């Protein structure tokens, strides 16, 4: 069994900062990719930031220059540092990881349970 557990969500005023964390646990061979997605009320889930094993981050245009994704490979943990938060950043933030459970196995995608981020005007 593989589990992704997020933490760090909460409520903050516009312009503030939050740091999200997501740790993967279980019988894991490797994690080529980890990232963050979000889903606002009544909206579709969208990519926020993704980090591959080679360390090349991809960001949504709406968060570039405000959010930073990083990873601690030894801890199977990915972080999302969010600064300059805006009310439109309000959403449930989900961690996602592409995980290989054993050598020569394919990749499976796992999701965390989500953590609420609320930004007040």
Brief rundown of the structure:
This protein has 121 residues and is mainly beta. The chain contains no helices and eleven strands.
Plain-language structure description:
With 121 residues, the protein is mostly beta strands. The chain has no helices and 11 strands. It has strands spanning 2-7, 10-13, 18-26, 30-39, 46-52, 57-59, 67-72, 77-82, 91-100, 107-111, 115-120. The strands form 2 sheets. Strands 2, 4, 5, 6, 9, 10 and 11 form a 7-stranded mixed sheet that branches. The protein is elongated, with a radius of gyration of 14 Å.
Look at the helices and sheets and give the structural class: mainly beta
Radius of gyration: 14 Å
Instruction: State the helicity in percent bands.
Output: under 10%
| Main beta sheet strand tally, sense and closure | 7 strands, mixed
N- and C-termini, Cα separation: 40 Å
Number of helices in the DSSP assignment: 0
Order of helices and strands: EEEEEEEEEEE
Query: What are the low-pLDDT stretches, counting only 5+ consecutive residues below 50?
Result: none
């Amino acid at each position: 069994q593989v589990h992704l557990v997020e933490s760090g969500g909460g409520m903050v005023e516009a312009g503030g900062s939050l740091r999200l964390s997501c740790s993967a646990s279980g019988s894991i061979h490797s994690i080529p990719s980890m990232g963050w997605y979000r889903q606002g009320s009544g909206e579709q889930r969208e990519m926020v930031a993704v980090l591959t094993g080679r360390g090349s981050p991809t960001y949504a245009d709406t968060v570039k220059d405000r959010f930073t994704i990083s990873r601690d490979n030894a801890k199977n943990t990915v972080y999302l540092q969010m600064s300059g938060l805006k009310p439109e950043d309000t959403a449930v933030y989900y961690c996602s990881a592409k995980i290989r459970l054993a050598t020569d196995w394919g990749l499976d995608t796992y999701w965390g349970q989500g953590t609420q981020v609320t930004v007040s005007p």
